[in-house]
Design goal:
single chain; five-stranded parallel beta sheet; four-stranded parallel beta sheet; 11 helices
Length: 323
């Protein structure tokens, strides 16, 4: 029987970043380190006592300028599991609503000796802006249509856990690629770990421009389904669109939704993923979302382990660099 560690076995000294703002910046080795550390922390979550003292005495601030439930709660629970103190702040309850700048708000939080600031913001680049100006660790919890690093990490973690590897797999990302920060982070993570990626959706939301990243683009979902090992479905990002990119939700479902008929064309062991929230009956049939091939709830569970790993590594690197 494998001994269950009190803390993650991966040495923090091999991780030198105090911040996590982008998957694009990480090397394959750094990605693998996060995944391996997350695997150790997932063992902790299966124990009767689910806490470890890794971040005891440290303070994490969840600063969500853009609304969120899943990601904020996951980071909060991850911090609690690591024995950190947690404060949640939203835009409506912060001084941002009174005209204070993001920089001044964050500097005030640092002045209160916050060790880690988890930031979700509607503006791309906001986490990097703060990371370059603060001593606190800054974790990007989603910035506009730019990136969502921890979502990509939990996605590749789930794939590796279920299929045993990522390299050589064919992953289809289907839906609103143009406005999706999840898609961008997933693309970077999957390519760095050796997967083949195909983007699928209407031409208005999946322009050929994405091929410059090293992925394949197609607007015919039916041609790609029999080939893929993983299907990652994305919801339509209505809140980031300023015009209509397809005639109706019904037409979108008819051409790009994962219906029962389409799901039958997948390989028997193909995984079905979705970052949530799921629009049942639009991007995926409700029965398929609840099928044995769906790993949507596994993604939620693994998100906790991944965020524990990210907090542990970044806070540890920040502590080392400040001594």
């Amino acid at each position: 029987m494998t001994a269950k560690p009190k803390t993650a076995p991966a040495p923090a000294a091999t991780w030198t970043r105090k911040d996590l703002v982008s998957i694009r910046d990480l090397s394959p080795e750094e990605l693998t380190l996060v995944l391996d550390t997350a695997a150790a922390f997932k063992q902790v979550s299966a124990r009767e006592i689910k806490k470890v003292p890794s971040l005891r005495g440290k303070t994490l601030i969840n600063f969500f300028v853009e609304p969120s439930t899943r990601t904020r709660t996951s980071f909060e629970l991850a911090a609690f599991r690591l024995s950190a103190d947690v404060v949640n702040i939203s835009a409506s309850t912060s001084s941002l609503s009174k005209g204070e700048t993001l920089k001044d708000t964050a500097r005030n939080l640092q002045a209160l000796h916050a060790d880690v600031i988890v930031l979700r913001h509607s503006s791309a680049g906001a986490p990097l802006f703060l990371a370059e100006r603060l001593e606190s660790s800054v974790i990007n919890a989603g910035d506009g249509a730019h990136e969502h690093p921890t979502q990509a990490l939990l996605d590749v973690f789930t794939i590796r856990e279920r299929l045993g590897h990522v390299a050589g797999l064919h992953v289809a990302i289907i839906g609103d690629i143009l406005f999706s920060r999840v898609a961008r982070s997933d693309i970077f993570a999957l390519l760095k770990l050796g997967a083949n990626v195909t983007l699928v959706g209407p031409s208005t939301l999946v322009p050929r421009e994405f091929e410059k990243l090293g992925v394949r683009v197609t607007h015919d979902i039916d041609s790609i389904l029999p080939e893929v090992d993983v299907v990652n479905l994305l919801r339509i990002q209505h809140e980031r669109q300023r015009k209509e990119y397809f005639p109706s939700l019904g037409e979108y479902t008819a051409f790009f939704g994962l219906t029962r008929e389409r799901a039958a064309r997948l390989k028997p062991d193909a995984l079905i993923m979705h970052p949530g929230p799921v629009n049942r009956g639009v991007e995926i049939d409700s029965e398929i979302a609840d099928s044995p091939r769906s790993v949507i709830l596994d993604q939620v569970t693994n998100g906790l382990a991944v965020r524990m790993a990210v907090l542990y590594l970044c806070a540890g690197a920040n502590h080392t660099s400040s001594n």
